[in-house]
Request: fold
Amino acid sequence: MNTSKDKIVNKRAGDPIDQLIFEEGLRIKNIWFDLDLDLIIVLLNNKKVLKRPISDFKRLAGANEEQLSQLDNNGIDIHWPDLDEDLSLRGFLKYELAKMDAPFMV
Reply:
């Protein structure tokens, strides 16, 4: 049987980020939120941790902890049905790469 999940796994990578996701199987394993620190914390299946400010996302910035916890995570995309917000592993990885290119600011 050919399912949509199979199509995700078997997709041919078009760039290095897609290669990590679709050929190497990089996935979002878990997600936490720290409202006091304004952080989304993402644990990947390779044990790496990614962080991003919640305030970067207008719909998430106004949400409480309960609303933030009502999410669907398929490993590649995160969806908040009640908040009508979608984030992707690809977006988190691109953000991390952009931070590496940016000058260090204190």
User: Anything to note?
Assistant: The two ends are 53 Å apart (CA to CA).
